[in-house]
Structures are given as structure tokens and as C-alpha cells.
Design brief:
5 copies of one chain form a homopentamer. The first copy, chain A, contains 10 helices and 7 strands. In chain A, β1 (33-38) and β2 form a beta hairpin. Chain A is α+β, with helices and mostly antiparallel strands. The first copy, chain A, has 2 domains: 11-284, 2-Layer Sandwich (Beta Polymerase, domain 2); 295-350, Methane Monooxygenase Hydroxylase, Chain G, domain 1, CATH 1.20.58.340. Helix content of chain A is 55%, strand content 14%. Chains C and E meet through α6 and α8 of C and α1, α7, α8, α9 and α10 of E.
Chain lengths: 354, 354, 354, 354, 354
Amino acid sequence: MSEKSKNKYKEKIGKSPGTLLYTGEGSTKETVITLISYNQEKIVSSTCNKLEQLLPMLKPGYTNWIDIDKIQEVPLVEQIGKHYGLDGLVLEDILNVDQLPKLDDHHNYIFFTLKMLSLEKTGQIRQEHVSFVLGNDYLLSFQEKPGDVFNSIRKRIENQYGRHRRKGTDYLLYSLIDVVVDHYFIIVEHLGDRLAELEFKVSGKSDQRLVHSITELKREFIYLRKVLIPLREAIRKLSISENDLIKEENTKYFDDVLDHVNQVIQDLEAQRELLGSVMDLYNSSLTQRMNNVMKTLTVITTVFIPLTFIVGIYGMNFKHMPELEWHYGYPVTLGVMFVIGLCMFIWMKRREWL
Amino acid sequence: MSEKSKNKYKEKIGKSPGTLLYTGEGSTKETVITLISYNQEKIVSSTCNKLEQLLPMLKPGYTNWIDIDKIQEVPLVEQIGKHYGLDGLVLEDILNVDQLPKLDDHHNYIFFTLKMLSLEKTGQIRQEHVSFVLGNDYLLSFQEKPGDVFNSIRKRIENQYGRHRRKGTDYLLYSLIDVVVDHYFIIVEHLGDRLAELEFKVSGKSDQRLVHSITELKREFIYLRKVLIPLREAIRKLSISENDLIKEENTKYFDDVLDHVNQVIQDLEAQRELLGSVMDLYNSSLTQRMNNVMKTLTVITTVFIPLTFIVGIYGMNFKHMPELEWHYGYPVTLGVMFVIGLCMFIWMKRREWL
Amino acid sequence: MSEKSKNKYKEKIGKSPGTLLYTGEGSTKETVITLISYNQEKIVSSTCNKLEQLLPMLKPGYTNWIDIDKIQEVPLVEQIGKHYGLDGLVLEDILNVDQLPKLDDHHNYIFFTLKMLSLEKTGQIRQEHVSFVLGNDYLLSFQEKPGDVFNSIRKRIENQYGRHRRKGTDYLLYSLIDVVVDHYFIIVEHLGDRLAELEFKVSGKSDQRLVHSITELKREFIYLRKVLIPLREAIRKLSISENDLIKEENTKYFDDVLDHVNQVIQDLEAQRELLGSVMDLYNSSLTQRMNNVMKTLTVITTVFIPLTFIVGIYGMNFKHMPELEWHYGYPVTLGVMFVIGLCMFIWMKRREWL
Amino acid sequence: MSEKSKNKYKEKIGKSPGTLLYTGEGSTKETVITLISYNQEKIVSSTCNKLEQLLPMLKPGYTNWIDIDKIQEVPLVEQIGKHYGLDGLVLEDILNVDQLPKLDDHHNYIFFTLKMLSLEKTGQIRQEHVSFVLGNDYLLSFQEKPGDVFNSIRKRIENQYGRHRRKGTDYLLYSLIDVVVDHYFIIVEHLGDRLAELEFKVSGKSDQRLVHSITELKREFIYLRKVLIPLREAIRKLSISENDLIKEENTKYFDDVLDHVNQVIQDLEAQRELLGSVMDLYNSSLTQRMNNVMKTLTVITTVFIPLTFIVGIYGMNFKHMPELEWHYGYPVTLGVMFVIGLCMFIWMKRREWL
Amino acid sequence: MSEKSKNKYKEKIGKSPGTLLYTGEGSTKETVITLISYNQEKIVSSTCNKLEQLLPMLKPGYTNWIDIDKIQEVPLVEQIGKHYGLDGLVLEDILNVDQLPKLDDHHNYIFFTLKMLSLEKTGQIRQEHVSFVLGNDYLLSFQEKPGDVFNSIRKRIENQYGRHRRKGTDYLLYSLIDVVVDHYFIIVEHLGDRLAELEFKVSGKSDQRLVHSITELKREFIYLRKVLIPLREAIRKLSISENDLIKEENTKYFDDVLDHVNQVIQDLEAQRELLGSVMDLYNSSLTQRMNNVMKTLTVITTVFIPLTFIVGIYGMNFKHMPELEWHYGYPVTLGVMFVIGLCMFIWMKRREWL
């Protein structure tokens, strides 16, 4: 999940600070630009591959949501950047999939980037770099991988559900961020399930693979926190933003998302702390198990070693050993050994070793 | 206690941000709305199930406390929200039982939510999502589960005990929060008792179930802190609020509750730290126990293995072993072995292994 | 020391927030009110049991120090509260022995509460709830248990030592707090001594009781910190107070006490950290001890088990064992075994197991 | 990497606070001063060894980048300081290779120092003390060791790539800092690789050298953080600087570098936390391994010690032992022992010891 | 180093808050007062024992540095305090050797106290309580023990090195603090050396004394931090002081010292963290060693116990044991045992136990 292709940074070093470079993995599918233009009465949606096709379709005065589905096509991103007058540093951040969440306020547009996390069917966490540019009558959304996470929003706009059609681009931005944050709850819940499962397994048996599972879970907690802490900061900036692009009546929505992110973070921290307990549980279970093994060894040894000594005595070949001549020497010896063994057994029983 | 029904979040994701959805467990009992209207002279209390029945009973100029007993009935909550002009996000927070404590100031009303914790007879902690809406002449209280936690307040109002009848809705809000916070002391005290019990048990015997008890206690500490930290923040906001709904003469009461919450938090933190010691205690008790087992094993082995070697020597079948022919060979050998065993014993006594 | 009587909180819950309730342990002695009235020229001191006796003795214009020796007598505290116009919440805090240190500024009087800690002859720490109310020409001091901690101040006032007689109630308050804080140094020093003793013992022998001592010490550190952190905050508020009851020329004294409290806290934190080391020391000493036991076991086993095998060989009853017939078979075998044992011994000596 | 030559500080103590002293290791190469003067149209670059040679080549109105390649030559640094009116404390910081990153704003020039980290081919981290002085039309850069880290910038300026030629000294400073920060990403990535490798090795086998590798890695994390935290602070000061030397239009570049530094720090913190897991992994793998050894010992002992006792019984030399006379005594005994051994084996199989 | 004489605090408790009391250890040497008066042209230095001798030698308009060499002579300190109008609380702090670093600004003079740490030849850290009082034309320095730490400053003033003679008392104060802070670097470096040595030793052998060394080092880190944190705060206050006694042009010097203190603190924190690793190293080395011991035990036992069982079988005295009669019974048995032993050996070789 947080794997990086090696030497990625090395490529960049020789280059000028402003050189645009896509840092994610390649993909062979074609980029799709989806445009949805709507106001309270009308809605038009269309799809294309090139900027030249897109431009004539934009409707001034409408809310234009331009969703670019794949950011591997660097020249397209560059053209869009030029058309909307985006700063070179913003374009760099759109293309850099390692960029952590942040908000940049450029007066006439606001740049916002975050990580979309979703759960794949295999239980693995899929990570996607998503960026937004909020303008006066347009919202650009850049997705790393083609996907249908924003489909629910699209449908709601088309079906005139919710407040979308009455509200502008800032409310649209809120909805999109809200969808992403809602997915975090699922991820944290999923990690919580894995944690509970681990806790259950850990006291059942001591398998070294469990420690690996714990480490892996820890790595994902660490990754999530790395992504969530700057996200909180970015959303906080949105909700206190004095930029006119965010209407004052809508800041309450961003406050609400902020509240959700805080809740995710607190759930995460609580789980992280519990993970430490699971490691403790594993370690003490390991020691407990060793204790049991040692006890068995000690019990067997303690009972039989003195008895073996006794039978060794009567195995000696001295000429003059009166006991050997006695008629009941053998059964008496067996009896004595039985009594000794029994005493040992009782003594250990009392010390709760059995 | 902090268990969540799985897949809860998934349901929500497709929906519009403003869709109202109850996130707790169901209940078959009917919702009960209890209205108590009072001023310094008069008091009227009544009960109903529907908003239409309630509305004509409200008395303007009186302090109207409307207690909704179960929030599973989403449409009722929605109607009340509409009637009092509550924001959709507030209604969402009323219905979302995972919402952490918070305060939202909406100028003409204040929304406050917290968790009611109470101790069931089984020793388990019962958690309830409770929300308040403070208006000018009304206080709405939403409880997740029907219960009698606020009965003491109700009685005091009816019996004209305390300052209730002279003071308005803000003092009523304070009383209700105070009751909830008082219950936290009981919970923390109860956890403290369980901790002391664990500490006692842990050095008595090494049972793997104890580690589970420690983990469980830790989980409850983590949960309590998760609930208390935002509660402190919310009450702090109340006590420094500049909203006219909180009269300046009454802020001292909220200061006092804040002080109580701080005290609960400090007790909690102190106990959390002690819990770490209990784990240490358990681990060192485990090692100590292993040490004792090892010592026994070593003592037995160390004494008997050399002696067994000696008797082995005289069990050899060599033709020419002069000792075997000696008349006192056997008793001398026994004597020598006794002396060797004694020396071993003394040596180990000195090293404090016995 | 931090023990609480159970169910204490439960009693309170049904009651009105303003209900006065003494939360400490009972005492059969009678309450004693000691009044010392002084100015630069005159000093009058007297003792009584009731408020009615006290009131005529107060001297306006003098510094009136009214020391109430036991707070179990709730009605007396209530009467005094009424006479001086104290808030109900203040009276509650005076009577609640679990109240942590705090300062409440009520314009015409300042309420200050802290914990008096003293060392009993048995080495145990005695804890007492002490409250002060600072007015214009009076200082009320409420002590939980009768004691002589403030006697030194009383003597100094009577004997015209120090600055007391020239200065007013605020300087008196400072002196009393200073005496209490000076006692904290003794407590921390005493805990430091116990820590040093533990550190010494811990490497001497591994006794499970030592772990209990460590836990106990930790509990007292935790308690002390719980009491000191809010005390620091309360004194800080005093030293920056803009209330005219604290004369500006006297704030430097409160700065000085604040400085002392900071120093106690830092000593405490340093010792707390060292306590962690003592636990480490104990654990590694436990492991070291186990290592030594294991080594002994291994040495004995490693030397004698192969030898026992050899003597076993010549104890076999095969008809055709040529060695048994040899004349020097026995001494040669003994010799070989001696050499083998010696080699083993040397090998283990080299690995530093002996 | 963070090694220091001993007694370095001792030398300094007797000296005046303003005494200039190079604190790094010596080098025999000659200092090289490289001057690049450029504006949007022209560019001149030259190389010399002495200040006298340098001064006539400076071009007023151009951006003059003076790169001093080795700071061992104290008198040269002093002359340059005098010529540009640098404070004695600044010169001290330029020469003190232990100086942590910082920014000093001296109104007419800004002093900035940081650590250049690069990866040598051996995998070791090379550390270099680099300082900048930003003036109105000049930028001094002081490097501890001759190297080619800034060559990429030099080429870009010469080839008129990027924005360099249009922008002034502040943009040049940004580019140089950016190159250094880009190298941090490589370092952190390299440490991450080493961490992953360790994690893999640690569960494979328990080699004490692995613990050393973990400690070494930890030391480098600690060093990196020590260098990065003040660097963040210094860059933050640059980006909010109100000094006219940093043009307002260029602060966004410093914001961008700040963002990168934050990202490096967060990666670092994430890896540091994972390192703790690797140590846990190692420890539990060690215990697990011990468990396995113990199990083997216990299995062998538990099976054979009782059997050896039985054969010992029939090795006794009592006159009257009826079993010895029986015709099938021997095979029956063998059979019984086999059954006992089998039972033991099954019992241990069930307890999952095999 | 941080040892305190017991019961010290008890003595103080009965006393008035303003009672002067020297809290350090006694000394029999006589107090020496050294006066150095200088301005840019002239310098006069003299030595005496009494205040009466000192007063006539003070030169108004000059920078008068009065160095009191031993603070055990309480009456002298009191006289000086009276002469310069120092507050009683300041005198208390001068005499209290446990006083942590702090700065008190009394308008017409500034009081500054810190700890002088130096390394004795035995490797022990010598601690000294040093206080300064900065007035308009005088600087008082109070040293606990006679020593030569300030000699280097004295020489520089006399020899007109550095900026001393041109600058006033504030620069002198800076120089003296700078000397003290420079010594901290030596201490931290020395502790770093001891840490490195420990790290080396710890993996060599497991000696319980090493744990003591680690604890001792930890104690010194804790002490250093306790002294450095308030020192940083005190110097920070100096550097932002608005008192005219600190000329604005000289604040940069205090900034520089502040920077040094920060660097010492960061070095210290880095080393403290490494110390934790050393403890980890020790513990895992202990476990590793135990593992090795266990392996040896297991190897020996596993090889010989089955073989001993076999020889036991043929030591039984059954009448009918056909193998005993066989001609090659003995060598075959030996051969079989050799093969079994070999298999065991190979099996354990594979599991890497040898």
C-alpha cells in the first residue's frame, strides 16, 4: 500500500524544480474527460478525450464539473493547467502521487489534494491520488485511476437529489470530499475487524506469522495517520477560508467534514493503542507457553531422575550389598520408589505445576 | 461497549450527505415524548407520542423541556427538526450514535451532544447517545434508549427543590449535563476497582485470562478518553460561549462541570498509567514463576545426575574392578554419594536457589 | 493514600447539584475555630466552636485569620458561607475532599484549594484537603483534619517575626501556601530515598515484593503529579491575578511559590523516569539470574550425561565385550572419562559459562 | 555519520566567543571560488582562489552566485565576511560543521545554513555543512567538501532552462535548497529499503548483528530528525519572511520546499515507528526460537527419561525378581515401553509440541 | 551528582519564607571577592574578603565585575544584597544550591542563575551553583565553589582581547554564560563517549554492572535535561528582554547562546534516545546468550539420552535376551548407536543449532 517504486526520486533530482513528471504507475487505458454542466434548471453531461473537444462544451454561468480520469497523460494536464492559469507547482502536485493532502489558496482558484482509499475485494487497501481545483464556475477533479467512486454524486446531480443543483461549485467540492472521507470510515472499520481477529488468534496459538500480521497492520495505521493528519489541516483551512470561492453559508458543511475526519483520526488512534496491547498479548502468550513446556520438562525430570538414581544403586555390582539378598528387596524398593514419586507429584500439585 | 455493527458505514456511502439515517440498534418500544413546562409559579407535565399532540401543549414564556425518549423513529426527529428550524447536519448528528461529543452554536439555538455512560448490574458499561438542543424557551433532549437517568432532575423540578424553577433553560441544560458527568465518576471508580482487583490477582497466579482482562480494561480506558476529551472541549465552549442563550450569571455552573470533567480525565489518565504497571507486574510474575520452575529443575538435576553417574560406574561389568570386591565398598560409596549430595545442596542453598 | 471510599459518588448522584455533602472520613473530635486578628501594633487570638461566638470577636480593619479545624461539621461551613456570601459551588468544593487544587476568583473574594501532604512517622503519606477564602480583611482556612502544620506561621505572627504583621491577608495566604509547598519537597525527597533503596535492593535479589514496591511508588508519583499540575495552574493564576485582593507588590511572593512548585514537579518527573529504569533493572536482573541457573544446569548436564552414557555401555550384559575382559579396562575407562570431562570443562570455561 | 572528533569543544573553550575556528576535518585540496554572474541576457562564469581575484569580476546589477568550495581556509572566509559586512557570529556558524540548520535575518542579508546529505556508493550517508548568505545582488554558498551537487543548477542557468535567468538571487537560493531537500527523499527512501531488508532478515534468523543494524538505523533516523526539525523551522521563517530580499511573488516556492521538508519528516517518523516494530519482531522471533529449542528438549526428555527408568529397574541385581525369569519378560517389557513412548508422543502431538 | 543531603528541607520548614539559609555543603576556605573595574581605556583589579574593603574600590562609570567566590558566608551575601538593594527572594535563590536556572527581572537589576557543570579528571561531573546580578554599571557573580572557570574571561579583559573592553556589563554577562554553556558541550560529548563505550561492551558480554552503568548514564541525562530546559527558558527571556540593562545591539549575542543551548539539548535528546537502544541491545544479547546455553543443553541431551536408553536396555538382567548372546551383538549395538547419534547431529545441524 505504501510501496514506492525505487529510484523514483533520483530521476527527479537533476531536473528543474518546475519539470512536470508523473510519479505513479503507468496504465494503458485512455484518459476520459467527463464534463457535467448544471444549474438549477438544466443539466448537460458529455465525455471526451481532448481539451479542444472539451472547451466548446463548457457553459458559462453553469456549474461545470470537469473530471479527468487518469493523470498519466502529462501533456493534457499541462494544457488544462495553461487554460485555467494554474501555477506550475500546482500541476506538479497533481501529478505527484506521493504528495500528501494539502490545500493551496491561489486567490482565483483553490487547489485541494487528498488520497482516496477504498477496500478491494481481496481485503487490500487501494490508494488513489485525487486532486481538485475549485474555480468560480468550474471544479476540476483529477483521479489517478479510472473508477466509479464519484458515480453516486453524479447520479444525485442528474436525478436532482439533494441540494446539489441549487448550490454551486463549493458544495460540489464538499460532496466529493465527503464521499472520500466516508470511505475512510470503512477502512478504519475494516482494520478494526482485522485487529479483533488478530487479538482472538494471538491467544490461541503462537505463530510467528501473527507478528507479521501485527506489523503489517501497524504499517497501515501509520500510513493512514500520515494521510489523515495533513488532510485534517487542509479541510480546516477550507472551513476557515476567507476566499469568496467558499460561500459563507457553506462553511458549515466543511466544518462537518472536518468533524468526520477528526472522528476517523480518533478511532484510528484508539485502534493503534489497542494494537500495542495485542503485541503484549502475543508476547505474554509466548512466555506462558514456554512456562508450560518448562513445567512439563521439570515435572518429568523431577519425578524420574531420583527414581532412576535409586534403581541405579541396585544395579551396582558390589559383592556385598545386603539388600540384594533380601527376599522382599525388590518389591520393597518398588514400593519406596512409588511413595517417593507420589510425594513429588503431590508437592508439584500444590505448587500448581500440574 | 465500543462494538459497532459492521457494514454500517457502507450503507451510508451511496447516500446524499444530508440523508437522515439512524445508526444505532433497533428497539421495538414506542417513542415517548415527555413535556415539562414550568416557570417559577406553575408546572405542567404531559406525555405523548406525536408532534401534533405536543405542539398545542407548549407554553410560551415557560421553560419547556421536551424529552424524546427514543431516536429510532427518524420521521419524528425530522418533524421536530423542521418545527424548530434545526439544520440537517444537526439532525444527522442526533441520529448518528457514533457521533463524538461536540457543541455547535447556531446563533438561535445551541446543539450539544455527549455520551451517557451508566453501569449495568452485570458490571458492564451501558453507553447511550444523548443530544440536547438549547433554544430560548425550550430544551430538547434526545435519548437513544428509554431510561430513567433524568428522573432525578424531573423530580427536583416538580418538588421545587434546588434552583431549577427560578432559572431558565440554560440551568436545566447544566443540570442534565451534570447528571451525566456525575455518572462518569462512578464508571471511573468502577474501572479503578477492577484495576485494583486485577493487580491483586496478577501476582497471585499467572493465568492467561488475566491478560485478556487487562486488554479489556485498556479498551474501556481508551473508549472513555475518546469520549471525554471532546466532551471537555464542548463544555469549555459552552462556558466561554457569548451566545445570549447562556446567561452570563450561569457560566459559573458550566465552569464547575468543566472542572468535574477535568477531574474525571485526570483520574482516568492516572489509572491508565497504573494499568501499564499491572502488565509489568504480570510479566515479571510470569518470569519469576519460570525462574522458580527452572530452579527446581536445576536443583534436582544437579544433585542427582552426578550421583547417577557414580552408581553407573559401579554398575559396569569389568572383570577387574577392585572396589566391587571390597567388603565396605557399598556403604562407603553410599556415604560418598551422600556427602557429594550434601555439598551440592549447601552450595545451592548459598546461591539462594532453595 | 489515594484510596477512596466506594460508592461515595453514587450517594451524590440523586442530589441537586448544589447539595452540600462532606465526602471525607468522619471524625469524632469537635471542630475548633481559631481566630487571630492582628495589625502592625496589636494581636488578639481566641478559640471557639460556633459561629455566633466568633462573629463578635472579629476586628474590622485588622487582618482576621479564621482557621476552621475540621470540615466534617457541614452546617457550620454552611453558616460561614452564608455570612461571607460564598457561592454554593465554593462550599461544595470546600467539603469535597477529592476536589483537585484550583483557584476561583469571585471578585470580592478568592477561593483557593490544595492538598496538604505530610509524612507520617510510619513513612506513609498523609493527605489533607485544605481550602482558603481570601477576602479584603479576612482569610478563612478550612482544614480536613486537626493538625499543627500552620503553627509555625501562628508563632511567627505572634512573635512579630518576618513581614507578617506589616503585610495583609494576601501575604498571609502566601505564607500558608508556602508552608504546604515546602512539605512537598520533603515528600519528593522521601520518595527519592525509597527509589534509591529500591534500586539498590533490586540488583541484590529478585523478590516479587520488590515489583509491588515499584508499583506502589509509581502510584504515589502519579498521585503527586495529579495534585501538583493543577496546583501549579492555580498558583499561576494567583500570581497574574488582577484582583485587588492580591496587592501588586506581593505578586513576587506568589511567583516564588510558583517557582518552587515547578521545581517540585521537575524533581518528580526526573524520579518518575528513573523509576522506569529500576523496573528495567529488575527485569534484566531476573533474566540474568535465570541465565545463571540455566548455565549451571547446562554445565552439569553437559559434563555428566556423556559420561553416564559411557558407564552405561560397560554396564551392558553382552556376552562378547572384549573391553570387559581387559585387565586395565576399568582404570583406562575412568581415565578416558576424566579426560572427556576435563575437555568439556575447558570448553565451557572458554565460553565463559563458569 | 554523526561521529565527532573528540575534544573538539575543549579547544574552543578558552577562546573568545568571536574566535573563528573550523571544526570539521581537514582536506588538502585547494579552495575553489566559482563565480557565476547572470541576468536575463548575459551570463559570465569564472573560477579563482583568492578574494582579490574575485572582486573585480563581480558584476553589479547581475545575479552574482559565489560558490566557495571548501571552508577549511578560515582566512578566506574571514576576508569574504569582512567584504560583505557579515557578523562575526555568522562567520562562526559558517565554519562550525556541527551547527544545526538555522536562519538568521540581518536586515541587509539573510544567513541560512543546512546539512547536505548524499548517498555514497557504499551505501553510507555523506554529510556536508552548507551555508548560504543571501544579499541583494549576490548569493554566497559555502560548501564543506568539494562536490558536484550544485552542478545541475549551474547547467540549468547556463542553458537558460527553467526560470532561473528571469528571477533573482532569492529564486537561486530556493533552487539550491530544493536540490538539497530532494536528496533527503533519496536518503529516507534508502533507509526505508534498509528497514524493509532488516524486517525480512529478522524473522529468518536470530543474529545478534541484526540488533546492531537496527541500532545503527535508529541512530541515522535520530540524526536525520535532528537535522530536519530545525531545517523546517528555518525554511518556515524564509517563507514568512518580511525581508525585501525575498520577493513576495517567490514565497510560494519556499512554501513548496517547506511542504517537501514536511513530507520527508512525516516519512521519517513513519519509518521510525516501524523500526520499533522490527525490534519487536526480532525479540519475539528470539523467544519463538527458544520455545522451539525448549520443546525439542522437553519432547526428548519426556519420552526417554521414564523409559530409561524402566530399563533401570530391570538392570537391578536383586536376587528375587520374578520378571527376570519369565520367558517373555524381555519382549513384553520392550512392548510396554513402546506403548508408553507412543502415548507420550500422542499426548505431545495434541499439545502441538511436535 | 544529583545527590542531596537528607533532611535539608526539613530544617527550612519551620522558618520564615524570607530566612536566608545556605543549602550546599560547607567549605573551610575563606571567601574571596575579586573586583575588576574597566572601561575602554583603564582596568583595575583587586581582591578582598569583606564588603567594607570592596566598596571604596568600586569605580562609578566603569564596568565593575564583582566575583564572590564562595557563597557559604551567608552574612556577606546579605550585606551585598542590602548594598545593592536586592530582594530577599533573590538572596534566597543565590544561596539555595538546588535552585534551577531562572531569570528574574527586577527593573533596576536582572537576576540570573544557572548550573556550572565541569568534568573532573576522574570522569565525574562537578556541579556548581552560579548566580549573576546584572546592574547598570556592575555585575555580581556568585560561585558556590572557588574555581578558575572564569579565568579565561578575566585574562581576555586584561589583555584587551575581544570586544570586552568596548562593551558593557551585558556583554560581560553574555561572555560568562557562554563559557558555562561551552562546558555543557564537553559534558554531553563525554556522556556520548560513555554511551558509545557501553554500546560496545553490551554486546560483548552480559554483566549486570552494565545495567547499572546504563541507569547511571540515564540519571545524568535526566539531570542535565532538568537543568537545561529552564536554562533555555531563562536565556530566551534575556534575549527578548525589554529591560534597558540589555542593550538592543547585544541581544544577538544572547540569541547565539540560546542557539547553543538548543543544540546541546538536541544532542542530549538524541543520546537519550540511543540509550534506550543500548538497553534493548543488552536485553536481546541476554536472551541470545540464554538461547545459546539452551541449545547446547538441548543438543547434548537430545543426542545422549536416547543412546543411554539403548545401553540401559542391554544392561537389563532378563534371562532370555537373545541379542546378548549374539557374537556381534556388542559392535552392532555400538554401530547402531553411532548412526542414531549421527542422524541426530545432522538433524540439529540443519536446524542451525550447532
